[in-house]
Design a protein that fits this description.
mainly beta; about 35% strand; rod-shaped
């Protein structure tokens, strides 16, 4: 029978009894082929296109493809065997594919070494280990990401095959912040797959932040990003650095009241407000709190309601009228809900001395319908005392209007039996009402009499009524060894219907002064 040649290494299988005197040469050739298959490295210089390997080259254990590629390179195998192929080429991003003449092949990545096998039809990869077992536990850093903000790419410096494996993870530094919710990730050019959070939702715009390291894990369909979702109630304040979370990191209206511990928000955490403001709301309807001015705040308060027989209501008191607090006009809030003046209200105190008159300085408020003058003092010489009143100005009333009065006095002394009444008179005085009548001076040459009394004048708001004057007062003197007491009751009319605004007590001679310490107190009653 004839010799046969193997399809794996091309070794000649000699038939028994053949090749007389040449069998040794054939055997030597076979041994050379075996040696090359076991220990020889074959260098193939490629520039691109198709290079058909010779049987002798294919017998080598290791083929190293070198050279600068100008296009994709194909190495065509014919022997049915396994071989180690290393791709050391340079130039462009061209590939090296090992294949059969008519079948498919395997791409050997640049810089990688693979074991491939011609199975008689196609060239296929021969895994040295269980690839799926290695990749499913793989965690690698791929450096800076490529692609775009919303179509991210990354490359690991190792061969991963033609498909992603469920469970594989890779991390990379993002080169841009995502601008859309539809984001893809493509590792080693295997193919882009959708990026999702752990809860299956798409990432929010801006969630994949530039210059941050993110980990992508393949779940068999999509790439799942780490840190995309925090479990409900899993973050405590103890896990957050003080002032670490800015408002820019929290989605609008994302924090519910249920997530804030009662009494946890301090005043310092509220928004700043202007000086002299209250927190409240004046805008109609339910809404956010507002910083209210004092005017806005008081407008929200209930009005004070006075007692009408069955009680009142507490609240905002009514505003006083203009100048109510001025001297002579002071009012008080009554239980009836209105401002009022007390029965007798102090207007002014005039301390006299060194002048012949004690006179009101400020105008008496027209609201007072009664004026009360209480006086006491000592003149520096014998004189008679007059009351002058005036309207606006002061315009002191003179004889043009007239004063009319009746007065009488009683004189008692210790040196006589009982007292002696004085004469009752009807008088008219040009400038005022004379409180001490003719022939009865308040002073004497031997004593310093004191004079005190009270004058009551009505001041009704009427265009027809005259002003009534009542003057009950007394004076006393010590004349030598005899004490004398003078008591006068005076009633009179001031003939004017105008409101009185000023009053004075004056010594009618114009030369006598009030002694120091003399005084006059003015009171009013509404």
């Amino acid at each position: 029978m004839a010799d046969t040649t193997s399809t794996v290494l091309g070794i000649v299988d000699q038939e028994t009894g053949g090749n007389t005197n040449t069998w040794g040469d054939i055997a030597d050739a076979n041994f050379a082929k075996l040696e090359k298959a076991i220990a020889t490295t074959v260098l193939v210089a490629a520039t691109g296109g198709t290079d058909t390997l010779s049987d002798d080259d294919e017998r080598g254990q290791h083929i190293v493809v070198s050279g600068t590629l100008a296009s994709n390179s194909e190495l065509v195998m014919s022997l049915v065997k396994s071989i180690i192929v290393s791709n050391t080429t340079t130039g462009g991003s061209y590939t090296v594919t090992v294949k059969t003449a008519a079948g498919s092949g395997v791409v050997v990545p640049r810089g990688e070494t693979m074991i491939v096998r011609n199975d008689g039809t196609n060239v296929v990869e021969v895994p040295v280990f269980d690839r799926d077992h290695i990749v499913e536990n793989l965690y690698r850093y791929a450096g800076s990401a490529g692609g775009t903000a919303d179509a991210i790419t990354a490359t690991l410096a190792m061969y991963l095959g033609s498909s992603n494996v469920e469970g594989m993870s890779v991390s990379c530094t993002l080169a841009a912040t995502n601008t859309a919710t539809s984001v893809t990730f493509n590792l080693n050019g295997i193919g882009a797959a959708t990026v999702l959070r752990r809860d299956g939702a798409a990432p929010a715009i801006g969630e994949l932040l530039i210059n941050t390291v993110r980990t992508f894990t393949f779940d068999g369909t999509n790439w799942i990003i780490s840190g995309g979702v925090i479990a409900n109630d899993s973050v405590s304040t103890a896990k957050i650095i003080d002032d670490a979370v800015t408002t820019a990191k929290i989605v609008n209206d994302a924090v519910t009241t249920a997530k804030i511990v009662n009494s946890a928000v301090t005043l310092a955490k509220l928004a700043n407000i202007a000086t002299a403001r209250f927190i409240g709301r004046t805008t109609a309807g339910t809404g956010v709190p507002e910083a209210l001015t004092g005017t806005q705040a008081t407008a929200l308060l209930n009005a004070f309601v006075g007692d009408s027989g069955s009680g009142g209501t507490k609240g905002l008191v009514p505003a006083p009228a203009a100048n109510d607090a001025d001297e002579g006009k002071l009012k008080f809030l009554g239980a009836g809900g209105s401002w009022f003046r007390p029965a007798w209200h102090f207007i002014e105190e005039i301390v006299a001395g060194g002048s012949d008159q004690a006179m009101t300085s400020a105008a008496i408020d027209a609201a007072y319908e009664w004026i009360r003058i209480t006086f006491e003092g000592v003149p520096d010489a014998a004189d008679r005392l007059q009351l002058n009143v005036a309207t606006t100005g002061p315009a002191w009333l003179s004889n043009k209007y007239g004063y009319y009065g009746n007065w009488h006095y009683y004189n008692f002394n210790t040196g006589s039996a009982g007292g002696s009444p004085g004469v009752s008179n009807t008088i008219t005085v040009g400038d005022g009402i004379e409180l001490v009548g003719a022939g009865y001076d308040v002073a004497s040459s031997t004593s310093d009499p004191g004079i005190q009394g009270q004058i009551l004048i009505n001041n009704f708001n009427s265009t027809s009524r005259r002003r009534m004057v009542s003057v009950p007062y007394c004076d006393c003197k010590i004349d030598g060894a005899q004490a004398q007491l003078g008591i006068q009751d005076f009633g009179g009319v001031i003939e004017t219907t105008a409101r009185l605004t000023h009053a004075r007590l004056i010594w009618d001679t114009g030369t006598t002064d009030w002694r120091s310490g003399s005084r006059m107190i003015i009171e009013g009653r509404a």
